[in-house]
Structures
1.
Amino acid sequence: MAISGTASKLGGFGLALVVAFAAAYGVGQAVGPVAAEPEPAAAGHEGMSGASGGSATHGTAHGTEVPKGLQVSADGLTLDVRGGGLRAGERGDFAFRVLDERGVPVTRFAPTHDKLMHLVVARRDLSGFRHVHPAMAADGTWRIPLTFAAAGDYRVFADFQAAGHDEGTTLGADVAVAGAYRPEPLPAPSRTATVAGYRVTLAGTLVPGTTSRLTLTVDRGGEPVTDLQPYLAAYGHLIALRQGDLAYLHVHPDGEPGDGRTKPGPAITFFAEVPSAGTYRLYLDFQHGGVVRTAGFTAVAEPHEEK
């Protein structure tokens, strides 16, 4: 599933992470087993999609905050995936709705990072990932053409802000794609990732329980890329999925195009607070030459050691 992506700015999706990632980073592929129709506004996409703000959690469970994306219902809203019978290699319209507490489809949304809805689709083994932007019909049904190239269990995340809500919401649901399933191992940790002739290097170490600075630097053929293009109102987007339960974090970079201080590369800086240890898959989206590309990393957050 090949994946491209994006979403809201530092203030829309939650820079405080209830999922932890960092300490070690690993290279991966930017292309997975899912394909979607290209968006009219984008020149091209390779792979999938980060400064966010607000909360990275939804509600509490017995006093414990729940990371985004783990619940099908939160904030009085429910993700309703329509249809079934998905098969690997078959193209079709993927459809879903967002329902309110009365079971009525929500039809009013506030834009977050230039879009009303951000849909992320990831295979459970994190070998496939895509971030796309479906269109909504008058009855509140969202649709987008998708082809699941590989069979397996997938997690879909709807990332949005419903009208009347002060913060964004991320809901998740599982979908099954029929066919011969072959699980893929998670790539080993590394500080660099390559995609389509570009190299992305990560500097910085995240420690659970603290706010840490991550800087991702993009070069091509050994030359720094200093003319990154804005994509969904940012020079880069970062999504993290925790291995196992696929807890979700969408982060956007510090600064934005046109603010008078943020340069178009080669460095993109993010801040994230990671309160727990674990293994994560990170996906960085950036645009250059009219094409959105995604660099994938494996990240391991080590427990904080008291001295």
2.
Amino acid sequence: MTDTNWTRLDAYYSEQLVKQDDALQAALDDSAAAGLPAIQVPPNQGKFLNLLARIHGAKRILEIGTLGGYSAIWLARALPADGKLVTLEFEPRHVEIAAANLRRAGVADKVEILQGDAAASLRRLIEQQAAPFDFIFIDADKPNNPLYLELALQLSRPGTVIVGDNVARQGEVGNAASADPAIQGIRRFIELMGDNPRLSATAVQTVGAKGYDGFALAIVEA
């Protein structure tokens, strides 16, 4: 199969199963118009995250990497009326776009965007003794994935679900000799998941509109 086949099939899934509404499409359009990189999850994977969070009954969600707020909308919509999403973003311009997209989607009251270095924001949450999160989505700068996992675990509880995006990267994550810091960051992230006795984890490869990639999925067991 080719990338054309993958993209066509993703479009079919999204048309038949996702039925993206105006607020989600506007979030994509405004992010593109503002020059944000087109690296957000595609619609079918956005709904996949939404369903995972709903299946888990998550009331507190942590997202590392907001970008334009597209995945944040999907995650916020998974929350109950008293739920909360905390999302971390480094770039001030991205925060501005995301905040507008979240307001238009009607979920801004459930979302807190923390602007700044993600590791520093995570450490502040730990210092503030923030309540543990039920669901954590890690989708930011890949060289720091191992650090994000380490800090996220300090904001977890038994039963917390952790999802990591982009863990295949055209299959290069399987190349131990890669000199790419992003590849090595993801490899260490995967290895830490596998070595940590608190976690039960797996990973799946995916293909679609964003090419060949994958998700890591873990649950905190202790």
3.
Amino acid sequence: MNAPQGTVTITHHFGAIEVAEEAMMTFPTGGLFGFEKITQYVLLPAARKGLWWLIAPNADATTFVLADPFALDADYAIDLGEHERADLAIEDANDAFALVMLTLPEGTGAMPTANMRAPIVFNLNKRLAAQVVSREESHELQKPANLTLYPLQEGGVSLG
């Protein structure tokens, strides 16, 4: 079966997911740290508001969980350099949308952690993204992330 116009079908280990082409993001300067060769991802809202799925559609469905960093730290700030703004075609601060990567614990009782030091910055209008290293040394690599700060939402994608 063919996907409708304007959509892309991703094969994930949880099944086929049909997403709008607008959800496709390109990392023009290389992918995520450790995944530099993967430069195309799909960004989808998760079942909790402020959490997102970042899925590599052509790389065995490599999937990351991203979170709104401002829910974890209201004073969080990102200072993008001139090259980063140019790579992402960010002309105005409102063009930038930042998320941080979560690491989920393997065992029960442990809390997920957020990498506040290397956020992923998106220009949603241009469908561009880049992982950047924050110049702010106080940002933690493993900040405890209480997922109850992110309320359930309708319309989010649930994997599993």
4.
Amino acid sequence: MPERDHRRVKILVTGPLGVGKTTAIRTLSQIPTLHTDEVMTDAAVGTDDLSLVGLRNKSTTTVAIDFGRLTLPGNRVVLYLYGTPGQRRFLPLWEGIAHGALGALVLADTRRLDESFEVMDLIEEHGLPYAVAVNVFPESPDYDLELLRSKLDLAPDTPLVTCDARVKNSSLTALVELTAHSLSLAGAQA
């Protein structure tokens, strides 16, 4: 579609290892998604701790990006969804992908919230607006959102929602929160 027919918006979907980024993009995308998943090897030992809750059965990981596309109702805005690794060792790749993004949707897991800080630090260092979506796993503890906001040390205006990355409407709600937040910040700066 020519640019005059619609506006293209880049959105990052990021978070720590095994939090559901690939799943969220697969769930939201209207096109077949691009994935760069590879089998995890012994090279990950000492780098990625697979003994953590939720990672014990993980056998593949995204080594570059995930990509999907979502056209919003009215066909005027098309969201390009880029899933990025959250580890600092991917910083050069992350910076290239983040360039020109409207904002970032950070997925978090209540079983290992501390893993989210590195990702949020990267986003804040680059001045990107973001929202946090706590991905609900079957065995995840259920916490009050205000307690989670405190534990994640989020600013009062940073959106915080729960979602199930496997459910389109749930993931879409998180994306809407991010988009509304990013647009309001852009309007305030203008």
